[in-house]
Amino acid sequence: MRKLALTLTCIPLFLHLFATGDSLSYLTPKDTVFLSADDFGNKIFEHTMEKGQTFYSLARFYGLKLNALYAFNPEVEQDGNFEPGQRIKIPIPDSAIVKSPQDAWPRTKFAPVFYVVKHGDTFYRIAKNYFQIPLDTLKKRNRLEKTVLFTGQRIHVGWLSLDGIPDSLQLLNANPMSAKMLELKLRYDAAKANKKEQFHNGAAYWQREKKGNNDYYALHRFAPVGSVVEITNPMKKKTVYAKVLAPIPDRAYGDDIVVVISPSLAKLLDAKDAKFFVEVRYFK
Judging by beta carbons within 10 Å of its beta carbon (0-12, 13-18, 19+), is residue 252 exposed, middle or buried? Predict the structure, then answer.
């Protein structure tokens, strides 16, 4: 028997949640799926790889293309090799979660799904924004007298089929902003084949007063127009990808500014100030 570890990305590191299963099945009736929310609005759980499994079969079970699986897990080597116990992030589309089972519903063919509360979550946000569940339904399911939540609290939101997720559901329920970032990440990875990686660090700048237009773009001094750059905020350990629209205009910004980014990117990088330190990589 294997252990399927569903550890969380947005809660304290001391919390680890396990369920039993076997090396040939990615979900069994004994499993429980614990979800967290990433910066793009995806609901994510982490699957722990076991001997006998493959990235290809894992991606196929959850309705993902293999390159999408790698994009959600940039630290994973794309040669297919892994160490048993390695954790892989899997996005779970909202429509794959059964939220209102019928009386004759075969629960033995489904695994329960819980959302783990992170700092700043509210009961209303979880019910309405994350999972589109009536407030009274969610409250009754979790036997809650009050809706005041605490970080790390587990909220039962529904069930997931042991047969996996059809790829049609993954495509249909893709977060538009997440899909756009994923596309940029894939373009960045594709450039590795025949170009040399460039690296430098310095200050990024964004305009607080400018309204975000839900786009991922950047101005850069050296990267080719139309290319994709990788931008990391090392203090927050957050990385994003951006399309280069144009060079930074001469004399418009100080020499310490290496990249100008959109408000949407600044938010994803958890930028608190209009100017902050970043690391930039691109291919040329």
Answer: exposed
d(CA 228, CA 185): 8
In the chain, where the domains are located: 2-174, 179-283
CA–CA separation, 174 vs 93, rounded Å? 7
Tens digit of each residue's pLDDT, the chain (284 residues): 333 333 333 333 223 343 334 456 788 888 899 999 887 778 899 898 888 888 999 999 999 888 888 878 877 877 778 888 888 999 998 889 999 877 667 878 999 999 999 988 999 999 998 899 999 999 999 999 989 999 999 999 999 999 999 988 886 555 555 677 878 888 888 888 778 999 989 999 998 765 545 688 999 989 999 999 999 999 988 889 999 999 998 888 888 999 999 998 998 888 989 999 999 999 98
Is 179-283 a CATH 2.40.40.10 domain?
yes
Cα dist from 119 to 12, 37, 89, 130, whole Å: 10, 11, 20, 15
Contact 242, 216 (CB under 8 A): yes
| pTM for the model | 0.65
Nearest to 92 by CA among 52, 61, 134, 125: 61
Q: What is the DSSP letter of 179?
A: H
